[in-house]
Every structure is written in C-alpha cells, then in structure tokens.
Amino acid sequence: MTIQINPIVSPRIITIPEADGTEITIQSLVNQIRDWEDEQVNLCYPSILSASGKETLDASTKVGITATLVNAKVKFADRTSPTDCDIYGGNLVAIDSNGDPMNAIQYAENVTVTMTKSSSATMVQSAEIDTILARIGSPTSTIASDLDYIKSQVDALPQTHGTGLWEKKRGIFK
C-alpha cells in the first residue's frame, strides 16, 4: 500500500489510492507517513504526524496507538460507485494549523469512511472521584470506612478481561 501526500494544500491531504483497497490500519498509516517524511525531498515540510502508544501494561498487554495528524486529513480516493472504507487499529485524530481539533477524514466522492476508535476502561468517572473526595474529606469518616467505600467503587467498575488492569486494581485491597 502506498499513500500519496499533497504537502502544499492546507490542510495537507493523505490519499489512499483506490488500488490499495478499502481499509487501512493506524499502524500502517503511521509507518507510511513516517516513510514519506524520511525521504530527502520531503524533509523541507513540517511534520505531518505525532503518534503515541504501545506502552507495555504487563507482559502480554500494550496500550493502543493514537495518531494525531498535524494540519492533515486522510482521504480514500474517489470511487465511481458507493464504497465503504475502514480505518482501524487505534485512534486517529487531527488538529489544524492552529492546534485546534478538526475532522481527520477528507470527503471523497462515493466513499463512506468508518473509523473504529479504541478506548480502555482505565479511567474513573469524574463524578465518582468527586464523591470519593467528598467522603474522604468528611470529618465523620474513618479511614476504614473510606477504604471500604473505595473498594466498593473499584468493584463496581467494569471488569476488563485480558488487560491485567482489573487484577492490579483489585490487588491493592488484598
């Protein structure tokens, strides 16, 4: 698969040719953009991409990849008949030349793009944090009852299988 990049327009357009199919992974997109940026002729252009992720959580689990397009959008090449195209395998976001969020997908004729986003159940909702802080800050509370309350909140979180995070969270109360 070979993407094509127009670095002159703003936002820059990263085109996935029709011959390359109807899907692309975030990792493939990152690899191809990095290859394009590394070419001697393209070194004069500002960076198109910032990527993060794949940090190790435990021996068998890594976080997903997030790619941020900088003043750039992805476009599947125009089609002659209606076509569904997919971007998957992480998160793709875009910011404009001022750093403000924008849509990462450029319109293409007869193309509908589905972007599958990845997320993790590792965050506690802010309302739950406020409740915990209010309870801990209460003058009538005791450390034991606060720990029981926090344990009940952790137990109420959705169990995420295969990440090892659930076991780590529960381990602090053993």
How would you describe the overall organization of this protein?
- With 174 residues, this protein is α/β, with parallel strands linked by helices.
- The protein folds into two domains: 4-115, no CATH class; 126-171, no CATH class.
- 26% of the residues lie in helices and 29% in strands.
- It contains four helices and twelve strands; from the N terminus they run E-E-E-H-E-E-E-E-E-E-E-E-E-H-H-H.
- It has helices spanning 26-38, 126-137, 143-156, 165-171; strands at residues 4-6, 12-16, 23-25, 49-53, 56-58, 61-62, 65-70, 72-76, 83-88, 91-95, 101-102, 111-115.
- The strands form four sheets. Strands 4-7-10-11 form a four-stranded mixed β-sheet, with helices on one face. A three-stranded mixed β-sheet has the order 1-2-8, with no helix packed on it.
- Helix 2 runs antiparallel to helix 3.
- The longest helix has 14 residues, at 143-156.
- It is elongated.
Uncertain runs: 161-166
- H/I helix tally: 4
Distance between the termini: 50 Å
Tell me the helix content: 25-40%
Structural class: alpha/beta
The largest sheet, given as strand count, sense and whether it forms a barrel, is:
4 strands, mixed
Using only CA atoms, what is the Rg? 22 Å
According to DSSP, the number of beta strands is 12
Structural domain count: 2
Q: What is this structure, in a nutshell?
A:
This protein is an alpha/beta fold and about 170 residues long.
Structural descriptors:
174 residues, alpha/beta, 2 domains, four-stranded mixed β-sheet, three-stranded mixed β-sheet, 12 strands, 26% helix
